[in-house]
Amino acid sequence: MKKIIILLSCLIFYQPIFAQLSGSTKPGRLIPKKEQPKKEEIKKEEIQPKKEKEEIIPAPKITILDPSIPKSNEVKHKESSITVRGKVFNARGVKEITVNNNDATLLKDNLFFSNVQLTSGENLIVVRATNQKDVSSEVIFRVLANLDQEGPSIVITDPQVQRGIKIIRKSELVTIKGKATDPNGVLEVIVNNQKAKLTTKGDFSTNLNLQIGDNPIIVKAVDNKFNASVDTFFITRKLEEVISAGRYFALVIGINSYSGYWTPLKNAVNDAEGLANILQTKYNFDEVFMLLDEQATRRNIIHKFEWLADNTTKDDNVLIFYAGHGQFNKGLNKGYWVPVDAQSNSVADYISNNDVKTFVGGIPAKHTLLITDACFAGDIFRGSKTESIKFDPNNMEKYYREVYRKQSRLALTSGGVEEVSDAGYNDHSIFTYYLLKALEENDKKYFDANQLFNEFRIAVTNNSEQTPMLQVIRDTNDEGGQFIFIKKE
């Protein structure tokens, strides 16, 4: 029995070993069942990763250092631009800083600045900072700009400028003086594009050259903020002051009512009256003598010539106008004026061009201009060629001064040694019509005989069979000067 029990025990003990050797039992059966769940739990913990906590990234903190922002969050400023300065804290790496969407300049230690242009009134300033994590913050404040956009105050002290009063100067050189003031200080004063002398107190002065006639004076003052203001006035320089013009006399002769051998004319009296009217109303003439029709006898014409010779001075100016018949005697080779009392074709009743030339030479005036609207008027120019001072448009003052200083004896004729027409426009001959038109339409203060001739001669030539002439009357004491018409104010 005892043997049987020992045998059974051996079989029970060796069975697992045998089964493992033979492959009929899983290897895991050697591990106690109660330990296996612990190993599986360890494996699961090794496979599953640990969960990290999410990091909270703070926004950059912006501190505005300049300007100082009050509690009202409104900064008052008087300039057209303002500089915003500041610093960014806890930035975690600054990516960008903008002021009103414009990149600010970034300095060390996250300091920054930016210049902002302002408009008058309220300006909103937005400062935005962004870090490398794209987290942003912003500061917003207002700037109330009371901008100085006014230029300096200008006061002209010399010459004294008063509204409605014309400033007239005699000399060519004038000194402009004044004072410019501004809270921001005066940077410069410019007068007619010329920089004036300027003191620290704003007093300025400069010298200008005046041209004949009206001279606009433009004074421009600029402050240190580049605001500008302008003051404008006029200084008139009269030619009379420069040339010391004497008295002006005119002898105007017009004859229509011929009889006997000479046929009546239609337009001569209208021509004379038209010229006399313009000289009296538009130009500075002290006395205009008229001899019309029956008054224009040979005796009366010569008597007026004698009066002018006896009563004018070396400072005076004389204009003589004749509109009537003219004659040329081929046998004597002379031209003549035909007075109203000439009844025949005899030179005994005429006034020869030689006589007219003698009287013109005997009149002591500084300037004498003879205007003749008659046939054969150009006969008075007999002789060799003469010369006058040339017209200079680039320096009118010098030209007028020179031609007025020198004596002149000029003749302006409707033609040469030829017949001219009595017909024309508006009851005037073609010559006098365009002569009057040029004088009427002239807008210059000073108008010499040469300018007058050039103004209308082409119109006469293009609309008639005659050619006007302007020349010196030879051997009458001409020195190359010019007769100058001076227009009334």
CATH fold label of the largest domain: Rossmann fold
Query: Helix fraction?
Result: 10-25%
Distance between the termini: 172 Å
The proportion of strand residues reads 25-35%
What number is the mean pLDDT?
84
The helix/strand class is alpha+beta
Low-confidence stretches: 21-31
Radius of gyration: 55 Å
**Biggest sheet character:** 6 strands, mixed
- Give, in spatial order, the strands making up the sheet with the most strands: 20-19-21-25-26-30
Domain module count: 3
The tally of strands reads: 31
Overall 3D geometry?
Answer: rod-shaped
Looking at how many chains there are and whether they match, the oligomeric state comes to: single chain
CATH architecture of the largest domain: 3-Layer(aba) Sandwich
> Number of helical segments?
9
The top level CATH class name of the largest domain:
Alpha Beta
